[in-house]
Design goal:
Length: 203
């Protein structure tokens, strides 16, 4: 069951990411190299790629208890990342972005369907009893590294993938405040997910 779900979820993940890449290439307004760099500057793309890689590794693993994909906390961290993707889109970006056709389908996959699928997989298979709250700070390395990456990239290209971290429009101070708020949300969601896992799921 676990492997079958992982195969199905991996296929959905790769379809969404690859299709989004093709759509971005077809509608590019910059050079090919610049378009590729911009594509991989979106937290949505990086995180959905991470999700697809995770499910791919689970689906091809001969031993479903093999490491590192089944280390306690790996799935929880990925779940938190993709929840952030979904929440930011639903609460902030949906109002300013109105895709049509295939782009709309891909958007819903990346920001709604895949986050839900990951949450379901997490609820079914994560061993939350042995995941420690102290691991949350390690999980924060990924979003912090991402922030450093896009701010550094933007300082050279003047391209920022999201309006709430667009230094050229809102300034560095507001960007850092928004980033701090997102980091706080990340920490709260991480703690909440662990609390739910330990007190309700109890596995």
């Amino acid at each position: 069951m676990k492997k079958n779900l992982a195969v199905f979820f991996a296929l959905i993940g790769w379809f969404a990411v690859i299709t989004q890449f093709v759509l971005m290439l077809e509608n590019r307004v910059t050079s090919l190299p610049e378009t590729v760099v911009r594509f991989f500057s979106f937290f949505t793309i990086l995180t959905n790629t991470l999700v697809a890689i995770y499910f791919t590794l689970v689906s091809i693993a001969k031993n479903q208890d093999s490491k590192p994909i089944n280390n306690p906390g790996i799935l929880t961290a990925i779940t938190v990342y993709i929840i952030i993707v979904g929440l930011v889109y639903q609460l902030v970006l949906r109002q300013v972005w109105h895709p049509q056709g295939l782009q709309m389908i891909v958007d819903e996959l990346l920001h709604t369907i895949i986050p839900i699928l990951v949450i379901i997989f997490w609820a079914m298979y994560e061993r939350t009893k042995v995941v420690k709250y102290s691991q949350i700070m390690k999980w924060a390395i990924y979003p912090l590294t991402y922030l450093l990456y896009v701010l550094t990239l933007g300082s050279f290209s003047n391209f920022y993938p999201y309006p709430f971290i667009d230094v050229t429009t809102i300034g560095i101070a507001k960007t850092l405040i928004n980033s701090a708020v997102l980091l706080l949300v990340f920490l709260l969601i991480s703690a909440f997910l662990l609390m739910v896992g330990k007190s309700i799921i109890k596995r």
